[in-house]
Automatic annotation (TrEMBL), chains A, B:
SUPFAM superfamilies: Homeodomain-like. It comes from the Bacteria. Residues 22-41 bind DNA. InterPro entries: DNA-bd_HTH_TetR-type_CS, Homeodomain-like_sf, HTH-type_TetR-like_transc_reg, HTH_TetR, MftR_C. Residues 1-59 form the HTH tetR-type domain. This is TetR family transcriptional regulator. Keywords: DNA-binding.
Amino acid sequence: MREVLAEAAFQLFLERGFERTTVDDIVARAGVGRRSFFRYFPSKEDVVFPDHERCLADMTALLEAADDGDPVGTVCDAARLVLRMYAANPEFSVQRYHLTREVPGLRTYELSVVRRYERTLAEYLRGRYDGTPDGPLHAEVIAAAVVAAHNNGLRSWLRSGGKGDAEASVDHALGVVQQVWGAAAEGVATPAAGDDVVVVVAAKGTPMWRVVQKVESVLAED
Amino acid sequence: MREVLAEAAFQLFLERGFERTTVDDIVARAGVGRRSFFRYFPSKEDVVFPDHERCLADMTALLEAADDGDPVGTVCDAARLVLRMYAANPEFSVQRYHLTREVPGLRTYELSVVRRYERTLAEYLRGRYDGTPDGPLHAEVIAAAVVAAHNNGLRSWLRSGGKGDAEASVDHALGVVQQVWGAAAEGVATPAAGDDVVVVVAAKGTPMWRVVQKVESVLAED
């Protein structure tokens, strides 16, 4: 029923536009009553993003079950749940991407959904960084960076028409955040002994993120 | 006129709530006609944030005039314009902070404004990083991190009732981003000679951001 309503709604949005489609149009197309619609969706906007509530619940469950060895890696894994939801249905996701860009009300709705993911990630990190100096600040900055990186990778894939490798696109983007903030970046093995060291020599004027890249590349070589 | 309308609106929002205040109530209180309201504000939400358009214009001007030596420092300076707008009127800003937390429509509106700042900063950085690998990705991640840090500092100050030092709160928060992404962090002089070097020794399992903090502290000692 849920899927039938979402599909009917989406067909109509594409045919006549989001603004000019009413809930009555949607239930008529789906062949159900008006009350059925509101049993599944609080509003016309929600039908465009039918899976975000489930995804948020999955994200919360993943974060609750995570071991705390690599909090940044964990929030990156949590963000990948969103990507997988989009990648499960490329055609629908690409159509929605274009629709969302055209309808201001949907953009606003999407912003509020993205913000809920970001808050969920930040809350987890706040718990992990509890008691450390500037814990809440680090939690919020890292959550925002993870969401921005994820969305950059996701949008690249959507702009390509859902053709390329969505996971690879997002993994690459999240790698930038893990490189800077993570406990150990991609390709770097967890150290077996605590006495392994890395020595970096850099000119003083070098941008900090280039220093980090250099540290990374040295670690990757070992 | 603009200020008179904003003040009348805000008094009414505090007295009877945002939802139960109409534009007619506002113009009656301000003693002007209904058309005057819409000449200044597209909607009831806009009157709660009367200065964001001007601030966005100031931000764009600052970014256009900036020299490009330290793009991350420049976007941090641009973000500080938002802080200064809030700090110019602490009482109003603190009341609005509480009002915004209570009214979902205002939270959504605020999200869309924050997003516009973030896009403005990201667009500037995209231009600066043009032609570098992953330039757009870095631009979006850094813009998101700057906005998150700024908002963390701003909210700390708002939660304190606007009592503390707003600029210090935001400077501290932005310092975390500049430490990781900036060309040179707070307290680190611009290098006079290109051959100054820093040597860092860290255990391989050390989280990357702690490596960065260590690099920073070594640089600061010199």
